[in-house]
Amino acid sequence: MRLLAVLAYCLLTPSVAWAQQCVLLGGSNTATSTTATRFVAFASQSGPAATENQRNGLIPFSGQVSTLRIELSGAPDTGAGTQSYQFTVRVDKADTAIICTVSETATSCADTTNVVSVTAGQELSLEITPSASAPTARSAQWVLSYHGNTTALPNRITVWPSSTAGNTISATANTFWGIQGLDVSATEFEVEQIIPTAGVVKNFYVELDGSPNNGAGTQTYTFTVMQNSVASAITCNISEAATTCNDTTNSFTVAAGDGVSIRSSIAAGTPTIRRASTGTAFEPTVEGEFVIAAANDTDLDTLATQYRRLQGVGSAVSATETVVQQLANAMTLTNFYVETSAAPDIGVGVQDYTFTVRDNVADISLACVISETATTCNDTGTDVIAAADNMAISIVPSIIAPVAVDAHYSCTGYIAPRRMVLVE
Question: Is the whole-model pTM more than 0.85?
């Protein structure tokens, strides 16, 4: 009888899975158009573009997206009629049900109800549509949550969407870009991003905005995920008339402090110059963790305090914190890592840079200092971030001006995995 009871329990009790989540931040201090539709990217700090292909990132693992939040730099209202901005999450260049509108005297909106399924290889972007009555020009911050497919294991997957944005990849030399963000460089360090926690990198997807074929001979691009400036086993080719490739077979393990980037190289011929969108998956060792990474591709100010966004690649730093903030969904932050392109030391006195994560224009506990001959620092403290908080990083040089450097930054985000019941 006891055996029959056990069998009945196993057959009738639903399976339980845990849905891993991550947040994709975004923001720009460039005002969007007041008369035409524009597009922006998640996990980035690039401004609005008229061409959606320049702002698409790819989903590398099937799951769902939800919890869109928007904050404008001011209200759309002009004082006459009704003005608004509508924000719509787009998948493969099609509107989804995730929509919110900032209207009249409001400065923010959210859609915390709708959930949209996404599959590996699909494009992800955010559309901004102004009202017919032109609103006041405003810049925006945005955030979206992703959670892994709860019907397929492993559920520990998080996603890194990125692209070359309006920049093209070289048809004659290597081009590098980040795992999160929209920018390119011939110099890897300028776009490389530091990983703040252990895990496995996998499921790499690439899409071009056109084929490499130039009509003469064979043309091929090779795309490779780099680890600490060394080519990993994760790679795929796009050749001739093709526009996509992926590598879902190979993977590599990363430790906290490792650098990761994406490289395009020429495998054959002189391909047609194209833009690229990519998506890379990350499976953290600790369930619930995910990576929020950033990089500067220009030198930091050696005399004055600057601020930058928490996620994305690019030169957008400012002396005014509020123009470079990024909106957050609820999470915990830990493991703050920073790496600079050179040591601050000038050979006389003491030089350093102090890096601090900021929440709603106030320091939190995550901070570290790169001083004298060092090029790295980290802080393993923990801070709780509330939904709709405004995040940034402050960078303070020492009184004696240090060497001008580029820098990488990252934090580990954490959201407790949601318990999901699977009906079989």
Answer: yes
